[in-house]
């Protein structure tokens, strides 16, 4: 590797990293928060079997899982202004990523809720809990640990997918790498550097996932031990 390339990589590292911290991470977290809430609502609507809303949820999931994320980004950022809805690049990206991942999270939540034995719901209703109370107090607390690994995997995938926001002018990690590559004519080295930074972020999230999963397992075991002692 020539001295020039090394010099470019060293000088560009913080230039790429800072947008990653200031833009890519907030974009990831905001989009995931939206997808989390949206996914939970869509899952509950399906499990509750509310006919009209259930079919809407299934249609929504079908559309957003069946069309490319990049196309959805372009429709929201470039297409909606034709309908009089104008969004800045960052909120448009949050909306597109959140709505897309919400369809996947909905299936994660739905499968986790369905995995809870029916007897749990029946027992809750026997002691006088209505359906919303049963969901909040009995079903969802048990479903969340089941859904957690898949949800966190979706979060890690979302972190990498945010690079697509460069296509709608969001100045994030990958956009900055592109700009420097265009100026220095060293795309290979700079894109590799960007990949290493993405890898570092993903690795940190993977470590966090492992730690949180252990915490969830321990808390679940603790609850069972307390329940057995009380019994």
N- and C-termini, Cα separation:
68 Å
Say what the CATH topology is. MetI-like fold
> How big is the Rg?
22 Å
The CATH superfamily title: MetI-like
Number of strands: 0
Number of helices: 8
Low-confidence stretches: 224-228
CATH class: Mainly Alpha
Name the features.
231 residues, mainly alpha, MetI-like fold, 8 helices
Structural commentary:
The chain has helices at 3-48, 51-66, 69-79, 89-114, 118-126, 131-161, 173-184, 187-230. By secondary structure, it is mainly alpha-helical. It has one domain (3-230): MetI-like fold (Orthogonal Bundle), CATH 1.10.3720. The chain is built from eight helices and no strands. Helix content is 84%, strand content 0%.
Briefly say what this structure is.
The protein has one domain: Orthogonal Bundle (MetI-like fold).
What secondary-structure arrangement, pairings included, does this model have?
Elements: H1 3-48, H2 51-66, H3 69-79, H4 89-114, H5 118-126, H6 131-161, H7 173-184, H8 187-230
Helix pairs in contact: 1-2, 1-4, 1-6, 1-7, 1-8, 2-4, 3-4, 4-6, 5-6, 6-8, 7-8
């Amino acid at each position: 590797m020539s001295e020039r390339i090394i010099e470019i990589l060293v000088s560009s590292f913080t230039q790429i990293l800072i947008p990653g911290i200031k833009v890519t991470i907030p974009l990831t977290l905001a989009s995931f928060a939206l997808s989390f809430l949206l996914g939970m609502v869509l899952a509950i609507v399906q499990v509750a079997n509310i006919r009209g809303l259930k079919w809407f949820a299934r249609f929504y999931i079908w559309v957003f899982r069946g069309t490319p994320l990049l196309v959805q980004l372009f429709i929201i950022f470039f297409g909606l202004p034709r309908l009089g809805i104008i969004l800045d690049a960052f909120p448009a990206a949050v909306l597109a990523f959140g709505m897309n991942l919400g369809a996947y999270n909905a299936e994660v939540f739905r499968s986790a809720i369905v995995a809870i034995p029916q007897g749990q719901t029946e027992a809750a209703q026997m002691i006088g809990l209505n359906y919303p109370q049963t969901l909040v107090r009995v079903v969802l607390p048990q479903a969340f640990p089941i859904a957690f690994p898949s949800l966190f995997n979706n979060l890690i995938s979302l972190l990498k997918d945010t690079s697509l926001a460069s296509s709608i002018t969001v100045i994030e990690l990958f956009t900055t790498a592109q700009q420097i590559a265009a100026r220095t004519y060293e795309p290979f080295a700079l894109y590799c550097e960007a990949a290493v930074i993405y890898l570092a972020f993903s690795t940190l999230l993977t470590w966090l996932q492992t730690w949180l999963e252990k915490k969830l397992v321990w808390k679940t075991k603790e609850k069972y031990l307390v329940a057995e002692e009380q019994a």
